[in-house]
Amino acid sequence: MEMFYTIQGEGKHSGRAAFFIRLAGCDVGCVWCDVKESWEAGNHPLIPIDSLVQEAVASNCGFVVITGGEPAMYDISSLTNQLQQNNIEIAIETSGTYALNGHIDWYCFSPKKFKAPVDEAYDLADELKVVISHPSDFAWAEEHAKRVKSDCALYVQPEWSKQERFLPLAIDFVMSNPKWKISLQTHKYMNIP
Question: Which among 193, 190, 109 has a CA at the least distance from the CA of 157?
Fold first, then answer.
């Protein structure tokens, strides 16, 4: 769908320079998705992998985030192989609803209530990031946290349009459950993509 150089705004790598590759296509259908235009893959032209890799290399940041849509819908191994041949660190942001085809360095697992994740997502997760858009999401986050590795970074992230309501609850939750951290969409505060 698009590629751009920016600052990672969420999760463990928040604040880090990152080259984003956003793949179009998603069948999860989160009602609060802020990139709904990514859902229909056919609405976006295909871009050769070589072009994506050249742009990532030209950014000179050495860190690529593959996101979507739902990037794990695709076999991304050709893309990840070429990025790694250029010594670029790779992160993926996925709902975990598909098995991963491709090698990445950081697996950000963001499960959604709209479609169940595959079991391997729990094993691969370096980071569990749960979007909070309802009070019940905190307990739901805890259920997922029981299934990830003990060294998985745990984040709750208030849904942007409901932040006024859920940020105070997230603060209370993290203070009562210090194994968790808060992820904010800092790129939105900075008004960058």
Answer: 109
Look up residue 102 and give its amino acid. Answer: G
Closest CA to 76 of 62, 92, 54, 96: 92
Amino acid at 162: K
Domain with 177 in it? 2-189
Give me the number of domains the chain comprises.
Answer: 1
- In DSSP notation, 77-126 reads HHHHHHHHHTT-EEEEEE-S-S--BS--SEEEE--BTTBPPPTHHHHH-S
Contact 4, 17 (CB under 8 A): no
**56-80 residue pLDDT tens:** 999 999 999 999 999 999 999 999 9
